[in-house]
Amino acid sequence: MKLAIGNDHAAVEMKFELIKYLEEKGHEVVNVGTDEKASFDYPISGLKVAELVANNEVDRGILICGTGVGISLAANKVKGIRAAVCSDPVTARLVRQHNNANIIAFGERIVGLETAKAILDAYLNAEFEGGRHQRRIDMITEIEETQTLKNE
Ligand code: RB5
Asked: Which fold, 2-146?
């Protein structure tokens, strides 16, 4: 799979470990985050990964900051992006199967490296189930486009 990974200063070490892990598994990883521990504003990485995903330049995105929250909030402002913060592998699987999340996010200050690897495995091995879940995704898209829902 072709993946984009972005981060801020709080997640540099974890990012490098995860790039190595993903490449060993055969994934191609585009690194768009900061490689330095100097203070770095997470919305920059959130936007870049979101653009790569929204423009279909990569298959899925990965975002890491201190908590995973700020960087996912930024990514979710881009049309077509569904970035989900996860701290466990079960949620990571379900956000793909049910919510068709195209970006996964987590926090280096929240999850350890082994949990982060398990989160990525669960997320990347899962597929969207469609069906009733598609109708709900369509509703999310309608909110994104019109700021309302016609048929509640
Ligand atoms: C940076 O200190 C921290 O605020 C950031 O990494 C993240 O946790 C924000 O949501």
From this structure: Ribose 5-phosphate Isomerase B; Chain: A, (3.40.1400)
